[in-house]
Write a structure and sequence with these properties.
single chain; seven-stranded mixed β-sheet; MITD1_C; MIT_domain_contain_protein1; MITD1_C_sf
Length: 173
């Protein structure tokens, strides 16, 4: 693995379950992971529920990092601004996540790019995960009280591909 040539591909089929963030990421979150980079242009919160789910997906991902066996100290988020009326809600949501992470000793650095397109997650132990749909590969729950609303292992997924790489040197943002 240390030669930097590792590549694994996971196909998530339409409506498949069992692909929570823990299932996808935990094996790569070794004890030495202290820094995480998330590049996803769509961590937004337009006033409709669908976009709001993307902020919740990022929050879920952060919760998984806080609970993981490693001691994450810094999360770097690179995303794009919400177009139109959602920007205020996007910023207040991200600031709330930032404040909440501080209570766990984790710093969230937020940056915005208008040209970002690709989605990837990198850990400072050399692992990089690219998901075609970014963190937003879960389908909207049937209702607020339906199975899968809280437990992402039970939430049906959209079809997507997950590519896992190991590189000796991950690029810095």
């Amino acid at each position: 693995l240390s030669d930097g040539k590792y590549h694994k591909q996971i196909r998530i089929e339409e409506n498949a379950t069992g692909f929570s963030y823990e299932k996808l990421f935990l094996e790569y979150l070794t004890e030495i992971v202290s820094e995480v980079w998330v590049e996803d242009p769509y961590i937004r919160s337009l006033l409709n529920d669908v976009k709001l789910l993307q902020l919740y997906n990022f929050l879920r991902f952060c919760e998984m990092l806080v609970k993981a066996p490693c001691k994450v100290k810094t999360i770097h988020l690179l995303t794009s601004y919400d177009e139109g009326g959602g920007r205020t809600q996007q910023l207040s949501g991200l600031e709330e996540i930032q404040q909440s992470l501080r209570n766990y000793g984790v710093t969230l650095n937020i940056a915005f790019s208008s040209s970002i397109h690709d989605r990837e997650i990198r850990f400072n132990n050399g692992w990089m995960i690219k998901i075609g749909r970014g963190l937003d590969y879960f389908k909207k729950p049937q209702g607020r009280f339906s199975i899968g609303y809280c437990d992402f292992d039970l939430r049906p997924c959209h079809e997507t591909t997950v590519d896992v790489f190991h590189t000796k040197h991950t690029k810095k943002m």
